[in-house]
Amino acid sequence: MPLPWQKSHTTSTGGRVTNVTTSNKSRRLRIFSSYAPDWALTIVLWAIFYLLDKINGYRRLFDITDTSLAHPHADPERVPVWLLAVLCGIVPAVIIIITAAIRRSFWDAQSALLGLILGLGLVATFTNIVKITVGRPRPDLFARCILPENLTENPLHGLTSWTVCTQPDDSVLQEGFRSFPSGHSSFAWSGMWYLILYLAAKMRINHRSGYTYKSWLLLAPLSCASLITISRTMDYRHHATDVIAGSLIGIAGAWYAYRQYYPPISSPQSYKPYSPRIPKDEEIPLHHHHRPQRSSMEGMLNTTGSHHHTSGSSGNTIGINGQPPLPVAQPVYGGYNGTTSSVPGRRENWTAVDIGDRTNYQSTTAGGYNGNSRVNEESDFGEAKETVQRPNERVE
Question: How far apart are CA 124 and CA 89, in angstroms?
Fold first, then answer.
């Protein structure tokens, strides 16, 4: 009779799984299919962001005597868009991939990258929607607008419109009315705050171990986001309230996206991603229909054939020397704690462990997980040892 951890596996319905590799590939495809809409949605979000950027949004009236709009136009910027994308998009993605490779967890990489891209897409799209709707002038508006020299005051009982501007490049003027909120700030804080949450969880920052190097490591992304935010006021592209609002939007978006795939960092298992949506449908019940071999003493106490018979309708069983045999419970091997059941064949007494869950194998097998016939570790992408069940899936 093959043991549960050996090559020939048994499903939860009592059937025999003859080709585990084929089943693993099928489940892998179903996992990829279940998360394909998520990746598609992030692509759609980025497409919406690109299209929104081309819209000629609202342009507020302004006061030509407002000195907060009279700052020079900085060209080039201290942090251009391409550098922002590298620092707050590509760098966190590379760090996530390297960390997941060290941990040998494909599922961790997939979850973290999807959360990062989701957060950046949500933040960028929402920020752009607010930008084109609010239409707040930038601090360098006058330099962009190129006001006429003879224009020294506002219209009587009113403010000045953008139509007085002599700027020939409408794209430059259009950007002059997209001050609130700061897109650089929201994008920077989204990428860097997501990285902070990811690294803090992986380093188990809240486990009260007191290692100071963890705080210094987290200071790097925190400083990066802060300096990018400050640079927007140094270039006179945004007011102080613009960068504050953008930073809050980025932090909120990063937290939301991170919590879609990971537990809070205060959790003891914060370093593990949530399990996939596709449950492990292949389970190995540690109870078999074949009776386990009994010891010689047990056979003597509960003999069959000529050693006992049933008397009439009384149902009394006569054992050796006319005495009733001792009751012997049929063990049902299994369970995470090694418990047994005295009622054989009842499905509710069965317990099962999932394929690839080597923690359960270590606790239920004498030889441990590292036997000669081990289950393929790659069948669940590190899911068995590197995931935590979602709250609505936990069984008390």
Answer: 12
| Range with the largest mean pLDDT of 30-39, 301-310, 312-321 | 30-39
Name the residue range of residue 238's domain.
55-259
Report if residue 268 sits inside a domain: no
CB 88 within 8 A of CB 187: yes
312 domain-assigned? no
Q: How many domains does the chain have?
A: 1
Q: Which amino acid is at 100?
A: A
Structure tokens, 301:
């106490």
Question: pLDDT tens digit string along 257-270?
Answer: 999 989 988 888 88
Question: Annotated active-site positions, please?
Answer: 184, 238
| Mean pLDDT score, 179-193 | 96
Q: Is 10 helix (H, G, I), strand (E, B) or coil?
A: strand
Distances (CA, A) of 283 to 1, 4, 54, 321: 18, 10, 53, 46
Which of 144, 216, 128 is closest to 178 using CA atoms?
128
Cα 393 versus chain centre, distance: 16
Please report whether residue 372 resides in a domain. Answer: no
Side chain identity, residue 270: S
Distance CA 195, CA 95 (A): 8
pTM (2 d.p.): 0.67
58, 141 contact by CB (below 8 A)? no
- pLDDT tens sequence across 39-93: 888 888 788 888 888 888 899 999 999 999 999 999 899 999 999 999 999 999 9
**Max alpha carbon distance in the chain (Å)?**
125
